[in-house]
C-alpha cells in the first residue's frame, strides 16, 4: 500500500478474506486422501482460526460495546461458530470419505457467504460506528493478534 494510505481494520480483514476465498476454492478442487487436500485443509483451518480469533477480539468485541453494533456482531459470531462446527466435522472425517467433499463444499459456501456479508454489509455499518482513529488502531491490534496464531511456515508454502 502507498504511504499516503493508512491501513484500516477493513484493509487487514479484506487481505485475510482473500486468502480464505483462495484456500476454500483450492480445497474443493482436491480429491481423495491426497497430500494436496491435507495441505489446503491445514492452511485453511489455520487461516480461519487466526482470522476469527483476531477479528472477534479486535473488530467484533469493540462493535458489540455499542448498541448499533450489537446485532451485526451477534450474527457474525454465530456464523463463526457454524464455520467452526463444519471444520470440526471435516477434521473428524477421513479425507477420502464420500461425505468429506460435500462438507468441504458447505464450508466453502458458508465462508464465501460470510465474507460477502461482512464486506458488503457489516463493514459499511461498522464504518459508521468506529471513528478514524479506532479503524487504524484496531488494524494494528488485529494484525498483531493474527500474527500470533498464523503458521507462517505453512503459509509460505502455499502452492499456486
From TrEMBL:
Domain named Hemerythrin-like: residues: 8-124
Gene3D superfamilies: nmb1532 protein domain like
Pfam short name (any one): Hemerythrin
PANTHER family assigned: HHE DOMAIN PROTEIN (AFU_ORTHOLOGUE AFUA_4G00730) (PTHR35585:SF1)
Protein name per UniProt: Hemerythrin domain-containing protein
Amino acid at each position: 500500500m502507498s504511504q499516503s494510505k493508512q491501513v484500516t481494520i477493513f484493509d487487514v480483514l479484506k487481505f485475510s478474506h482473500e486468502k480464505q476465498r483462495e484456500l476454500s476454492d483450492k480445497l474443493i478442487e482436491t480429491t481423495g486422501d491426497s497430500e494436496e487436500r491435507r495441505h489446503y485443509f491445514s492452511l485453511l483451518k489455520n487461516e480461519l482460526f487466526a482470522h476469527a480469533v483476531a477479528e472477534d477480539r479486535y473488530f467484533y468485541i469493540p462493535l458489540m460495546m455499542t448498541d448499533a453494533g450489537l446485532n451485526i456482531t451477534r450474527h457474525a459470531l454465530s456464523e463463526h461458530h457454524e464455520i467452526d462446527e463444519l471444520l470440526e466435522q471435516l477434521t473428524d472425517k477421513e479425507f477420502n470419505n464420500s461425505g468429506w467433499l460435500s462438507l468441504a463444499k458447505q464450508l466453502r459456501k458458508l465462508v464465501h457467504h460470510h465474507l460477502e456479508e461482512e464486506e458488503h454489509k457489516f463493514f459499511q455499518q461498522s464504518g459508521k460506528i468506529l471513528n478514524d482513529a479506532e479503524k487504524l488502531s484496531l488494524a494494528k491490534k488485529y494484525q498483531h493478534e493474527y500474527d500470533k496464531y498464523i503458521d507462517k511456515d505453512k503459509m509460505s508454502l502455499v502452492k499456486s
